[in-house]
Amino acid sequence: MSRLTPIFFILLALKNTEGAVTPVVTLTPNWNNVYSGDRVTLSCSVGSVEEDKPRYYYYTWHKDDKLMYEMRKTLIITAKVADTGVYKCSVESGIYSNPVRLHVISGDYLILQAPSDIIEGDSLSLRCHNRPGSTATGVTHFYKDNELSGSTDDILHIPNVNTSMSGTYKCEKYFDFVIKDQWKSAEKYINVQELFPTPEIQSSPYSIQEGDEMTVRCHTTLNPLRGGTELHFAFYRDGRTVREFGISNTYRVRSSQLEDSGNYTCEVRTTSDTVRKMSDEIHIQIYELFSPPQIKVTPSRVIEGDEMTVRCDTRLDPLRGGTELHFAFYRDGRTVREFSISNKYRDGWTVQGYYVSDTYKVTSAKLEDSGKYTCEVRTASDTVRKDSNAFPVQIKELFTSPEIRVGPSLLVEEGKQVTLTCVTDPKGSTNLLYTFYKDSQIVQSAHRKTSYVIGKAGEENSGSYKCSVQSRDGKVIKNSTDVHILIQSPISDVRVTVDKGDFVYGKSLTLYCSVEKGTSPVFLWWHNETVVDQDAEFYQLRENGAVLYIQSLQSHHVGSYRCQVSNKLSAIKPSFAVETFQISQNPPLGESTFPKVFFE
Q: Which CA distances in Å does 531 have to 526, 528, 581, 599?
């Protein structure tokens, strides 16, 4: 073996890494077969991952499993045939590097040089190298498995190799010899190693149920010679992406659902996307924790006042019998009972699982309880929830809302009889009870009688009346709308009086209209068949029209006056008239008087 270069001490400052470090041997130039006399450098590398604190490694070199040197990171040799062998290095961790074979050749005219290790995704360079001192002319031909790959100069470049490119490579050169020119060739088997094997996809736990956390892992192993290569992982279900490429080899579903079942694959690629591989397919089945709930209502025909029970049923997986389920109920999408475990019970166990139910009760059904009912079941952690189908419920009417009818009319003359009748359609119901109210006070308690009679109505009987109808058990009660009854006495004995006997020009005059009897009288004054209204120019109406006031008596006030009084029962037209008279020309102020006044 040739004498190696002098020993020197190398301290490689690297930062501390977790766990053992695997060293790698590299050749420079990167050919594993060389001619005798070629200069070769072997380096032992432990990676380039930077950490917080530097660390110093202790290197040892072995050739053909025999210790050569210690404390060296790099060996520099001028190759001789005796240097042929398998080289390895190690660090203090005791872990050896990959073995690298160096083949030193002396006699061949031509050798095909290749890197010591070729990994898929690499760019491969093959060198057709003739012995120093020999001369070759023309182009170099390269072959793979006896098929021409290219004609070029001494080096053939192949980018982004893959394992299918493994094979026997050969190169040819034409040599110009003194005696006889001839072609020479060299061949070499090139093995393209995997950067990483086809990934394996695995799922856990073994049996996955709804609500469980599911973990899917994509496992592969980097070739130790490319331990620092960054890989990216993607996951697919039934061919559709569930997670884009990322550095994590794990895909997690925090709360698995049935729709997460399917055929899963994973794909691994390098950052540069020069190498990518797809795993085989595995089927993941998410098992049902509990069945979709079923809803039903009893009785099948619900009438107002009946007790109605809405029941929600589901079946719980027998392996999860201790799971706590919560139930909620809805009508037309609105909550009628919040999630609760109250009233929950188990109907028993079968091989299909536990039958679990809950109920929502309406003690006395009303028409507004009609609608589409659904229920929802969820786990206590709310990781799984399911809805039932809708169940339509129509509450049958026990009897119609009552209407109160009054006879003879809502306006009644004092002393007359008034009959109030509560009318409803019983829909076949019997034993209905009727109650009558005046101004919200009971005037006739619950009874089977449908009418209430006022024998001789007085004004005190005026007011707002309504009735209610109820079932005998009192579960269903319905009220009519209010009606207003007005009891009035007719107008009688209308009288008109004045405040003085003499009528003096320029003085005031007041006429009074009164009635002896009558409810809510309405007064209307007439002067010469013309209505005197509140906005009349020469008159004032006071005390709700009962008083007609003339502030200054003038000639245009002469004429006939009458007062008409009415209410909703009658209209009586008495009158007060002033006899026609003459006014003297230029009468002394305060002396002229009107002619005599008379009443009709």
A: 5, 8, 22, 19
**Residue 444 pLDDT exceeds 70:** yes
Q: What is the pLDDT of residues 164-187, one digit of tens each?
A: 999 999 999 888 765 566 788 899
What average pLDDT is seen over the chain? 85
Average pLDDT of the segment spanning 4-9? 30
Output DSSP code: residue 146.
Answer: T
Tell me which amino acid residue 275 is.
V
282 backbone dihedrals φ, ψ, rounded to 5°: -125, 150
Whether residue 413 lies inside any domain: the answer is: yes
Q: What is the mean pLDDT of residues 275-290?
A: 96
Single out the residue of 103, 100, 379 nearest to residue 225, CA to CA. Answer: 100
Both 525 and 479 in one domain: the answer is no
Residue 299 has pLDDT above 70, yes or no: yes
Task: Please tell me whether residues 315 and 383 are part of one structural domain.
Answer: yes
**To 10 degrees, the CA torsion angle through 33, 34, 35, 40?**
-150
Compute the half-sphere exposure of residue 427: CA atoms within 13 Å on the CB side of its CA. Answer: 10
Residues near 217 by beta carbon (within 8 Å), at least 6 away in sequence = 201, 202, 203, 204, 249, 250, 251
- Domain count for the chain: 5
CATH at residue 102: 2.60.40.10
Range of the domain at 502: 492-577
pTM: predicted TM-score of the whole model, two decimal places = 0.65
In a domain, 421, yes or no: yes
Q: Count other C-beta atoms under 10 Å from residue 557's C-beta.
A: 17
Query: What CA–CA distance (Å, rounded) separates 310 from 292?
Result: 16
Question: For residue 308, which of 343, 347, 359, 356 has the smallest C-alpha distance?
Answer: 359
Residue 134 lies inside a defined structural domain of this protein: no
Indicate if 388 and 421 belong to the same structural domain: no
